[in-house]
Amino acid sequence: MVLQDLGRRINAAVSDLTRSQNLDEKAFDGMIKEICAALLEADVNVKLVGTLRKSIKATVNFKDLPPAVNKKRLIQKAVFDELVKLVDPHAEPFKPKKGKANVIMFVGLQGSGKTTTCTKLARHYQTRGFKSCLVCADTFRAGAFDQLKQNATKAKIPYFGSLTSTDPAQVASEGVAKFKKERFEIIIVDTSGRHRQEKDLFDEMTQIQRAITPDQTIMVLDATIGQQAEAQSKAFKDTADYGAIIITKTDGHASGGGAISAVAATHTPIVFIGTGEHMLDLERFSPQPFVSKLLGMGDMQGLVEHVQALKLDQKDTMKHLAEGVFTIRDLRDQLQNIMKMGPLSKMAGMIPGLGQMMGGMDDEDGSMKMKRMIYVCDSMNNKELDSDGKIFVEQPARMTRVARGSGTSVREVEELLSQQKVMAGMAKKMGGMSKNMQKAQGQMGGGNRQQQMAAMQKRMQSLGQGGMGGGGGGMPDMGSLMKMMGGGGGGMPDMASMMKMMGGMGGGGGGGGSAPAGRGRRA
Ligand SMILES: Nc1nc2c(ncn2[C@@H]2O[C@H](COP(=O)(O)OP(=O)(O)OP(=O)(O)O)[C@@H](O)[C@H]2O)c(=O)[nH]1
């Protein structure tokens, strides 16, 4: 059972109860039983589950509820709050400071995902304006430095290591000294995860720690070990006193719930969770957004942060949208932006309600469809790209040329054009709206964008919470969401249409291999 399934099961238990006609104590007990069974299957400690059960019962106190009280809301809130408590470590982690060297040392067993996570974290800080780098202090495993080098090169992060040295503490201090001199702000040191004997591994960790005196030591834990996470973290704590934990591989296993709750029970801050093998698959851990996402209520804060961190180039499209225009080039740029955001299923999980709605959607299919749309655009010349698409209606031969050049089919070109037409129609409306808004704002003496964003987030969250248990809620307004993320004026096109479009694209139409045959461009 994967973590998402755990969320779905809990959600279903609450929904069944709140939808049922006779919301009596027996049904309420049944719901608690189902939630507890799901948590136990996810390897959450039996004592913690017991506490959760008692707390939900005590909070709702079914017997003494006055008849007028909104039972559904009360039950939903109690379940939500108790799940948050279950994964809340109640501890604040170290926060790196700008303008100084923050040395972060990683420890953890082999295969836990240390090297991958080091690079993910360096990249995370890099995109947030910290000058970041990596040091490989694993001199035990041949190939460790190569792996870090490869990851770092891909993420464009400077790195340091040695292919010949056998002294990890020396390599670590040399690397840290070099990068401190070069005024790096985040210096991440990766250490070995294996040794002939466990004692050697722990000795090495303390030697490195003494040599570099890190500002923070982070332990990396593999979520698939479930509640054993507690024992493993204790063993490390006794030796290399770490300040925070990153739990990796929460994407594949429900036992991530077990690992997270086990660590939270020890009051150790969980700073991030790894949610996949991709560089972007690192999420800041925060109990409330985590539970919200688990239950299909989305994580708006995370989504906005994620999109902002990508620094997507929206300038031209925004300008066009404000003018009520949406060209084929705009469509291609937006497709490319969406591709940068990471797997679609993950993006959808952050949007209240959408993750569950798209449960069956295949990331590979979705991204292949988008790639083929980009191939179509790349086979157009500048005149075509900057057009509103009418040029293809007037001269249909252009479609055949583009299909041939991109290794797709005429039908796919037509579909892209009709999508662009839909977007252009929306842009026209939005352009008018945005002009009116600007006028209104001007009359009101302007508006505070931060306040607007906060209000929007609040609205989204309330929509998401309403969604649990099927009471009210429903899908939020994707157009507004994208506008908010894009910042002010226009914004990205409507995500729901994008998803719909991908679902409909590429079905049949014959022709077109998986790779473009050639993408020659004509003037
Ligand atoms: N699905 C998934 N896989 C992950 C995640 N993090 C790391 N991995 C994979 O886990 C495997 C081990 O990761 P490494 O980074 O090599 O682990 P390590 O702890 O550095 O291993 P040693 O160098 O042997 O100590 C790799 O295949 C990674 O791609 C994650 O969050 N989700």
UniProtKB/TrEMBL annotation:
GO cellular component terms?
A: cytosol; endoplasmic reticulum; signal recognition particle, endoplasmic reticulum targeting
Keywords on record: Cytoplasm, Endoplasmic reticulum, GTP-binding, Hydrolase, Nucleotide-binding, Ribonucleoprotein, RNA-binding, Signal recognition particle
Q: Name one GO molecular function term.
A: GTP binding
Domain of life, per lineage = Eukaryota
Do you know which SMART domains this protein is assigned to?
Answer: AAA, SRP54, SRP54_N
Q: Which GO terms describe its biological process?
A: SRP-dependent cotranslational protein targeting to membrane, translocation
* Domain SRP54-type proteins GTP-binding positions: 269-282
Do you know which CDD domains this protein is assigned to? SRP54_G
What the entry lists under Gene3D superfamilies is as follows: P-loop containing nucleotide triphosphate hydrolases, Signal recognition particle SRP54, nucleotide-binding domain, Signal recognition particle, SRP54 subunit, M-domain
Q: Which gene encodes it?
A: SRP54
SUPFAM superfamilies under this entry?
A: P-loop containing nucleoside triphosphate hydrolases, Signal peptide-binding domain
Q: Which NCBIfam families match?
A: SRP54_euk (TIGR01425)
Location, primary (coarse class): cytoplasm
Q: Does the keyword Protein biosynthesis apply?
A: no
Query: Domain comment, in the record's words?
Result: The M domain binds the 7SL RNA and the signal sequence of presecretory proteins.
* Annotated protein name in UniProt: Signal recognition particle 54 kDa protein
